[in-house]
From TrEMBL:
It holds the Pfam family PolyA_pol_RNAbd. This is CCA tRNA nucleotidyltransferase. It comes from Oricola thermophila. Residues 30-152 form the Poly A polymerase head domain. Keywords: Magnesium, Metal-binding, Nucleotide-binding, Nucleotidyltransferase, RNA-binding, Transferase, tRNA processing. Gene3D superfamilies: Beta Polymerase, domain 2, cca-adding enzyme, domain 2. The keyword Transferase applies. Its cofactor is Mg(2+). Belongs to the tRNA nucleotidyltransferase/poly(A) polymerase family. One of its GO terms (biological process) is tRNA processing. The lineage of its organism: Bacteria, Pseudomonadati, Pseudomonadota, Alphaproteobacteria, Hyphomicrobiales.
């Protein structure tokens, strides 16, 4: 037990205290572990609350339900049960020690030994436990690494990576979020040596980890070290020749303009802007349909430059995917800002792009004022010709900068007698 304690509202929460107490009766124990303890000690917002307990999974379910909580057996064979209380899910895992690993999945054995449970976790800062009363238990020296913001493998890094190659990506993910200075040298070396093992991981696990890395407030330094060690090329060969030079300017622009950090835009910034590359990444990482479309839309978005007029931009926004056009403008603006730092000639470009980004963000898709019903009312018979005529009228409306009124457009509907 360390002297440090946690004094926080989330820990005093009725649901959490209720669960910890139900799982601690009769000689059993339960503690909060993982991200919540780590983030709290780092002074950062906490996400999910994970719990570790000596109770066997069935016993966890029994006690939680007896205390009036709902449970979801999300990975019960690995000892994990989600306890739902107060609209929150508490991932509750029986203490375990790994007995056999194949580099991807671990066979587990349940145990009662908190130190053994700590040793099978990945990094020291992730193996801190917190008792219901706030006292912190630190079996592997996580507190010292919290102080220096060091992401350090528990035990021998190479050995730990061979057990689960995803830990390479987790090393950089946690460094991106919580690390400071240079990454731990031994960890870095082990990642560089064993990066080929990443090829055996499932696409879903790689993308889930990469997405969270790319969502960090500033993933720039982590990505640099990933490139340095060859890890980035191993998972994202598209970034190899292209590089990650666009990341720092993008992050700087996000801060300056308060754009929310978006993993997809950062990913886009790291790959060549072609549909082929977008499809390759989407396929390899099994992106969701929405994510895939987003990446492909961006790759297909038409060219926009600082010279593009607002009128021309409005037409581009109407004719293509407006969010993709806006993303292209944002990346162009980020890059122009970086250039302007060393060359003031770029300042004019920056100013023009700022205006265009704002225009794109405020733009609302105008509604074409005519419909097929207007054509029928004018005496046309429904059929493909109606659609064609409507599209031609829509084109003239776009060309007018969306200024042609409904009345003007109605007058332009061709006479059915003449058009046959
Ligand atoms: P966050 O949820 O905020 O991203 P976390 O540390 O809670 O961070 P999870 O992925 O929820 O991360 O995992 C919970 C805990 O389980 C970790 O803190 C770590 O102790 C352990 N863990 C998760 N994945 C692994 C892994 N691949 N190898 C070893 N330990 C792991
Ligand atoms: Mg967690």
């Amino acid at each position: 037990m360390s002297d440090r304690t946690i004094d926080a509202d989330w820990l005093r929460g009725e649901a959490l205290q209720g669960i910890l107490s139900a799982l601690s009766e009769g000689g059993e124990e339960a503690r909060v572990v993982g991200g919540a303890v780590r983030n709290h000690l780092l002074g950062q917002e906490i996400g999910d609350i994970d719990i570790a307990t000596t109770c066997l999974p069935e016993e966890t379910v029994r006690r939680a339900e007896a205390a009036g909580y709902r449970t979801v057996p999300s990975g019960i064979e690995h000892g994990t049960v989600i306890i739902v209380a107060d609209h929150r899910g508490y991932e509750t895992t029986t203490l375990r020690q790994d007995v056999e690993t194949d580099g991807r999945r671990a066979k587990v054995q349940f145990g009662r030994d908190w130190e053994a449970d700590a040793r099978r976790r990945d990094f020291t800062v992730n193996a801190l436990y917190c008792e219901a009363d706030g006292r912190i238990v630190d079996p592997v020296g996580g507190l010292a690494d919290i102080e220096t913001r060091t992401i350090r493998f528990i035990g021998d890094p190479e050995h730990r990576i061979r057990e689960d190659y995803l830990r390479i990506l987790r090393f950089f993910r946690f460094f991106a979020w919580y690390g400071d200075g240079r990454p731990d040298a031994k960890g870095l070396l082990a990642c560089a040596r064993l990066k080929d093992g990443l090829a055996g991981l499932s696409a879903e696990r790689v993308w889930a980890e990469m997405r969270r890395l790319l969502e960090a407030p500033d993933p720039g330094r982590a990505l640099l070290w990933m490139r340095q060690t060859g890890v980035l090329s191993a998972v994202l060969p598209e970034s190899e020749k292209w590089g990650i030079d666009a990341i720092a300017p993008l992050v700087a622009a996000e801060k300056a303009f308060r754009w929310p950090p978006r993993a997809m835009l950062r990913l886009a910034a790291m790959i060549p802007r072609t549909e082929e590359h977008a499809r390759a990444v989407a396929g390899r990482w099994k992106l969701s349909n929405a994510e895939r479309d987003r990446l492909i839309d961006w790759a297909q978005a038409p060219e926009v430059t600082a010279e593009t007029s607002e009128a021309a931009l409005a037409k581009l926004l109407y004719r293509s995917k407006s969010h993709a056009v806006a993303d292209r403008l944002r990346l162009a603006l980020a890059s122009a800002r970086a250039k302007a730092e060393s060359n003031p000639e770029w300042l004019e470009t920056v100013a023009a792009l700022v205006r265009l980004v704002r225009f794109a963000e405020e733009w609302k898709r105008p509604k074409f004022p005519l419909t097929g019903a207007d054509m029928i009312a004018a005496g046309h018979r429904s059929g493909p010709a109606v659609g064609e005529t409507l599209r031609a009228l829509e084109e003239s409306w776009i060309d007018s900068g969306f200024t042609l009124t409904r009345e003007a457009l109605l007058e332009r509907i061709p006479d059915p007698a003449k058009s046959g």
